[in-house]
Amino acid sequence: MTVETAQPASAVQSADETPGEGTPADEAFWEEPGASDDGAPGGSTHGIVAQATASDAVAQGSPIDVVAQDARDFGAYVRAGGWAFALKVARSVRPGGEAAGETPKISAKEFAELAGCSPERVMRYYKAWDKAADDGLVPYFEALAPGQDVELPDSDVWHSYYISRSSAASDRGTAIAAAAEAEGIRPTKALEVAENPTALRAAILADPSTAKAARAALLDRLKEDPSLQTELARDIARTDDLKKAVATETQAASRIGYVRQIVENGQVKTPAGQTIDAPAELRAEAERHLSLIDELDEDEDTGEWATDAYDTVKDLVAQTVQANPELRLQERRTKFYSSLQKATKVFEELTFDDVDDLDTIYEDDMLQRLEELQQAVGMCITALRKAAPGN
User: How much is the pLDDT for 101?
Assistant: First the structure.
């Protein structure tokens, strides 16, 4: 597609518009066509093209000619997008390494002065054309002469080569641009959001779908950002409602994990803590409940389903233990050992070694409880001695 474009030195003038937040005045200049959602030429571009072509059309004849010329220019710039402006730079600005006397072209600084914008902005168009030339989409600078027209790529690929915001030159901007490309969106969109956190906050607060997208992105970032993990955990710990919600979800996840373990490994833990092979009936019931949970939508509450699955499986485990005399006996033995170990640990921690004056902590109830404990322990020892083999 060949696009007729006005000469840069004579046609380019500054647009009289208010720049966006965090954007210098000259950044509003040369806002490439096709940047808006409807594909219409944006901002000052329309003023530049209209000013150059309208005057030419008026010189040629009737107002109908002016309208027709505007329509042709509009269609050309919509199809070409920012390539039309990049061509102005590519055919008029000296490539690096060429001296002023070797070419009729001018430096980026001189071009910017004539255009009424910053050299940095000119160089962003220059670099975009250079990248496209490396990919074979457009001719190299050396092959272009001032005023020369060439076939231009479609506007759809312009944003793959051009980054309009100066913040993209920073390490932060480069990372944002790379992430945007990985997500399949224009880097300029991501950079715009990053430069206006207040707008992002407003969108999250007002729109559930935006909040959901932000949550998903935050979770992805948490996987590789230990500092953010710590900060978020701290925020949750300091917020009562969040703490309760986390506790509820943790319980639900634990119960689902208990059921899933039965399905995947074919084993289950009894109330006393011993691991046994799950009977076929138990596995089938666990699998049925788990399939119901897995079919839930991501945003559905799993708490009630998890509780129902856990209670059902737990009852079946208890029935399995009671139906098997040997298993029931082993369950009692395991439970006794577990209680004995807990009691032993607690009593070992009960020491007076670090108390110099016992009378300062003495209470009648303490002595009474220890005497009762001593009596209970003695009864257990007597019972076990009677049950020992050979008695």
Answer: 73
